[in-house]
From TrEMBL:
Record-level Gene Ontology MF annotations: iron ion binding; oxidoreductase activity
GO biological process, one term: lipid biosynthetic process
Residues annotated as signal peptide: none
Keyword Isomerase recorded: no
Region (Disordered) location: 310-388
Fatty acid hydroxylase domain: residues covered: 155-290
Intracellular or extracellular location(s): Membrane
Keywords in alphabetical order: Membrane, Transmembrane, Transmembrane helix
Protein name: Fatty acid hydroxylase domain-containing protein
InterPro entries reported in the protein's UniProt record: Fatty_acid_hydroxylase, Sterol_Desaturase_Related
Source organism per UniProt: Rhizoclosmatium globosum
Transmembrane feature ranges: 62-82, 112-134, 146-167
Length: 388
């Protein structure tokens, strides 16, 4: 019987094509010579022929710890340069075109840079400690996952990270004390920019980003190379979400609307109680009704319904007013009019109750019974929805 399995599928399913039966170092990324020098005492502590694998493992660990930091500063600096060059080919992708109308950032660029630097120090030390604590006794036995396993773990990790960050983020908005003490620091950026992606209170930076990143890696027992890729992409995505440009080519747009435009809405004013999801997907906002666009659509429908009942009521009141003034033509229908006023009032009340019960916690501000125009109501409610 002939084997019909595609060689590519066999390769993907293979768990040891990167590490052969005869161990040898296979580098995902080149190991610089200076690093080999650093690793030598560690790798060659014994005359184990598998020592090159240990070098490889150490390299992966170092990439896992430092690659996100390096990529953060490289990508932020590139975006910073772009924002100053103002080249037309990039400026067409700029969002925040309402910038003059927004309140300016309450923090200086210098303070942002220093705070992010501190965040990276804490993050790197935490990662180093975790590496030491969780490193297997015999690193040579911890082989690199097959690409299929690595890709699977990567996607599960993105869902775990999003879930953790959605609820942490939402909690930090709903709990006024937490918002005031910690999360309001991030919302000093009303006009976000790339360097500010990790501008947080140190406690929030540790809880939200450092712990949030470590959880999927620990739960899924990810190989350092898989973690390095996961952390690097997550970091680049977070920087991109704050950069003020919505790139047409952004991979985020292939999957859903969670990109710079999406998160930028969350930074309006002192923080809008919508669009908590970050950094990858929008499904939690969608499930919990905290997606800005859909919340605004619900609000619009409600306003239209209210406006309809209000118009009915106004018309009926005018009829009633004419009747009171002694208008004979109306007098004949006076009793009917009064009944109609009563019924439309009840209908409006019912509508409000239905709307109220369909609203969730993050959207409670939309239960106002204002009778102003939908646009003005929407604006006012949007203002109310902003955190204080
Ligand atoms: Zn943000
Ligand atoms: Zn927030």
């Amino acid at each position: 019987m002939t084997n019909t399995t595609s060689p590519i599928v066999s390769w993907l399913l293979s768990d040891n094509h990167w590490f052969n039966a005869e161990p040898r170092a296979v580098h995902l990324l080149p190991i610089p010579s200076w690093l080999q020098g650093v690793a030598k005492p560690y790798a060659a502590a014994s005359h184990d022929p598998k020592a090159p694998l240990a070098v490889e493992f150490l390299t992966a660990e170092l990439w896992m710890i430092f690659a996100p930091v390096v990529f953060y500063w490289i990508y932020s600096t590139w975006l910073y340069i772009l924002s100053h060059l103002k080249l037309t080919m990039f400026e067409v992708h700029r969002i925040q075109t309402d910038q003059p109308a927004r309140k300016p950032n309450k923090v200086t660029v210098q303070k942002v840079l220093f705070t992010v630097f501190l965040q990276h120090v804490v993050q790197s030390i935490t990662a180093l400690v975790l590496v030491v604590l969780t490193r297997p006794d015999n690193v040579v036995e911890w082989r690199m996952e097959s690409p299929l396993v690595a890709i699977g773990k990567f996607f599960i990790a993105t869902v775990l990270l999003d879930t953790y960050q959605y609820w942490m983020h939402r909690w930090m908005h709903v709990n006024r004390a937490l918002y005031k003490r910690f999360h309001s620091v991030h919302h000093e950026l009303t006009v976000p920019f790339a360097y500010g992606a990790l501008y947080n209170h140190p406690v929030e930076g540790f809880l939200m980003d450092t712990v949030g990143g470590a959880i999927p890696s620990l739960i899924l027992n990810m190989h350092p190379w898989t973690s390095a890729i996961f952390y690097s992409i997550s970091t680049l995505k977070t920087v991109d979400d704050h950069c003020g440009y919505a790139w047409a080519w952004s991979p985020a747009r292939l999957f859903n609307s969670n990109g710079a435009e999406y998160h930028d809405i969350h930074h309006w004013g002192k923080g809008v109680m919508y669009n908590f999801s970050q950094p990858y997907y929008t499904f939690w906002d969608h499930i919990m009704g905290t997606e800005y666009e859909s919340a605004m659509e619900r609000l619009r429908i409600k306003r239209e319904a209210e406006l309809g009942t209000t118009a009915d009521k106004k018309e009926d009141n005018e009829d009633a007013g004419r009747a009171v003034r002694g208008d004979k033509s109306v007098k004949a229908t006076e009793s009917n009019t009064i009944k109609r006023v009563g019924s439309s009032g009840k209908a409006a009340l019912r509508q409000r109750k239905v709307d109220h019960s369909s609203d969730d916690g993050g959207d409670s501000a939309t239960t106002s019974t204002s009778r102003a125009s939908p646009v003005r109501s929407s604006q006012r409610l949007s203002e109310k929805a902003k955190s204080k």
